[in-house]
Automatic annotation (TrEMBL):
<protein>
    <recommendedName>
        <fullName>Pyrroloquinoline quinone biosynthesis protein PqqE</fullName>
    </recommendedName>
</protein>
<feature type="region of interest" description="Disordered">
    <location>
        <begin position="27"/>
        <end position="46"/>
    </location>
</feature>
Amino acid sequence: MEITGSSAYYAGLSAIQTGQNRVDQAASQIASTTAERSATSQSSDFQAERLRAVDRSQQMDLATSTVQLAVGKLEVELGAKVAKASDEMLGRFIDTYA
């Protein structure tokens, strides 16, 4: 009998990595939004409008970023549970203590 890597285990690891990437991207977006708001509160109205116009089309709003952060967190947690369950099942199929 040939035993190969568990596809469920690797799916769990992939979910962890995808979730971590989502968290990183959302956190970066939140940080840049916060930095922009800080910059605009210290500059003139004209300069603030120019700053907002440059990347308005590329920015997600703060609520969306916060939701993406929560989704990424859940994705990492669920990926870890899948990987752990797969690892435990493989241990049950093969008696490693015999």
